[in-house]
Prior knowledge:
Blueprint: H1 2-30, E1 41-45, H2 52-67, E2 72-76, H3 83-91, E3 98-104, H4 106-111, E4 123-139, H5 147-156, E5 162-166, H6 171-183, E6 188-192, H7 195-203, E7 209-213, H8 214-218, E8 224-229, E9 254-262, H9 267-282, H10 284-292, E10 297-301, H11 302-322
Parallel strand pairs: 1-2, 1-3, 5-6, 5-7
Antiparallel strand pairs: 3-9, 4-7, 4-8, 4-9, 4-10
Helix pairs in contact: 2-9
InterPro entries: BUG (IPR005064), Bug_dom1 (IPR042100)
Protein name: Tripartite tricarboxylate transporter substrate binding protein
Family: Belongs to the UPF0065 (bug) family.
Amino acid sequence: MPRKLAAIALLLAFLLMVGGCAKGTTQTGAGAPGDYPTKPVSLVIAFTAGGSSDVQARIVEKYWKKQFNQPIAFEYKVGAGGQVGFTEIARARPDGYTIGGINAPHFILQSLSPQATFKKDDFIHIAQVVNDPQMLIVNKASRVDDLDGFITEAKKREGKLTVGIVGTFTGHHMALLKMQDVLGITVTPVPFQGSADQNVALLGGHVDAIIGNLNDMMRSLDKLRPLAIAAEKRHDMVKEAPTFKELGYPFVSDIRRGFSVPAGTDPAIVKKLRDGFRNICKDPEYLKDMERIGQPAEYLSGEEFAAYCDQYDDDAKKLIEQYGLNRGS
């Protein structure tokens, strides 16, 4: 009997030891938070390749390699003004191996729509990297030379003048609605999947104007004419573009770009990503590259970007009610 008990005790000890080793192997295989990342990281982009979000993310990719020992792989999940991609990010496994480019106020507005597929709090924000003022832009071949000319043309065409925007329930959509109110005009909105498609349509003469980002303007500077910029003051990148405010119209609007992970991601991984992105955004060479491609860099920490999103969420609820956008089925 003593021998049998000793044998059982030995067997139990062996099993416990094997179990402990297996557990340790599993943790190492998955990558403990301190070792993150131990495999390539997927980066979801919610807009078309070649658009503002993609171009900016490619600059981040270049400097990512200085901060992390694994590559990032781009995945384009396009549609519904970014909603398809934002949904993909929100629903991804919260293990740090899917991060996403996030656009505010797009994702905030979409989280409040009747067709919402995610909530605002389904994301943990890593950083804001861009604050891109919006502009009213026409083709250089257009007979419209300035904002007054645009207003005159819009009134003459009685709502038939077409203005391209990126998606619906997006910052571009909201900017167009606000601009119509401020200018006292009505136009026909034409939604596109992304800014690259929007630019192509304007250059091809398929729309009369676009509400676009400063970066959209910068990428085709020689072929486009800015009528006004929705910023507090003129921007150094396009000093010739007057602000709506200096022309007598109180209209300010911008698009923020950042990076986020799904809610539930380990805080240690979130911290590592936030630290890495902060270092990227402070790198002088990164800032030079951003200026070179016409991306208006503005870094906010993950916590600061989250606070901005919370504030906009409160404002967006009022705007959605004002414009009747919550009446969809």
